[in-house]
Amino acid sequence: MFLWGTATAAYQIEGAVSEDGRGVSIWDTFAHEPGRVRDGHTGDVACDHYHRWREDLELMTELGVNAYRFSIAWPRIQPDGTGAANSAGLDFYERLVDELLAADITPVPTLFHWDLPQALEDRGGWLNRDTSGCFAEYAGVVAERLADRVPMWITLNEPFVHMAFGYAMGVHAPGRALLLDALPVAHHQLLGHGLAVQALRAAGAGQVLITNNCTPVWPASGSKEDLAAADAYDTLHNRLFNDPILLGAYPDLSAYGAEVEVRDGDLATISAPLDGLGVNYYNPTRIAAPTADGLPFTDAGVTGYPTTAFGWPVVPDGLRELLTGLAHRYGAALPPVYVTENGCSQPDELTPAGVDDQERIAYLDGHIDAVRRARQEGVDVRGYFVWSLLDNFEWAEGYHQRFGLVHVDFDTQRRTPKASYHWLKRRLAERDDTFRR
Ligand code: FCB
How high is the pLDDT of residue 437? Predict the structure, then answer.
């Protein structure tokens, strides 16, 4: 069965940050530091999904999706990142999972969508190798409660973005700006993934995936310098996270002066077979030779395409290019692929008639068609999840970027399905034959 879903993440929608024993995450800390998030927005309340989840589930049932990707907040399960489980935290996700199953919607939880317990950050966060072991312990605790019912698990969300934005550039929590010295964060997350796979399998979990953010990399020109820079970017964004998982080896990182301590056995742990690869796609990246010190490339910007409210280029065929490129690069080593996030922010306006988000409809239509074409070209794509069900807390942009199929009025918490929601609902009801397996 092809999975049609929507995706969300805990810190972006839940709110209720001090309820039922939840501990503090790095995003609570970061968002409350002046100047970190646009207009000082925080996830303290967000979409209040922690209290309104039944209404949100109803929206999904009405939409007609058969899967829901959400994330579990580690600080709700282990408030300090280690040790005994906080039962109330597990209860929340157990209720959600049970109600999803009752509604015939496959629950697809992600164990880590960037909200590391602050207590672990105080010990170095993902720069500290011990965090990998803590993550596996946490995965085991969640699986012990839910593995009998959850058919598909995702370990990490976008370890590249967490490393690059959180530890290299400092624009996301935990706000460290270490440039290439952030590279150990890649290895420790990947090791954490591998150890979590072991813990999930030991608890009898069904399918296990990781979600990587991937981008087709376009050199800005045919010059030797631009080609080398594009290769470096492809290595750091895509291959650094896909190669060790799928091939059991890191790409050559020696040119980047990176010191990453890889111990015996690490790569075997990281490359344990998976049941699928989750891929998040938003846009291609155009790369030129470096202009400043510190990084071996410059983002030259993709031009000549429409852009989203975020300014991201809209290139649906980039998704086909990405999927066929993965199949080409990894061949038989590529497991079934699931597009675990795709969507766009638009300048949505709520009027008495609703939200007429035609650009989002065009975006989704084009990208779903790109998945169809990749499948026709032989790529085993088995799912597509729209980012996102609801407008939500968009990290450093606060509530300024709206990605939802459903509009949220953050003053009243009123949900209003947009035109794109109604469009997708009709589309799913058509039961398109090209997506049968
Ligand atoms: C992805 C994140 C997700 C959301 C979208 C727009 O990188 O995984 O949480 O912010 O971007």
Answer: 61
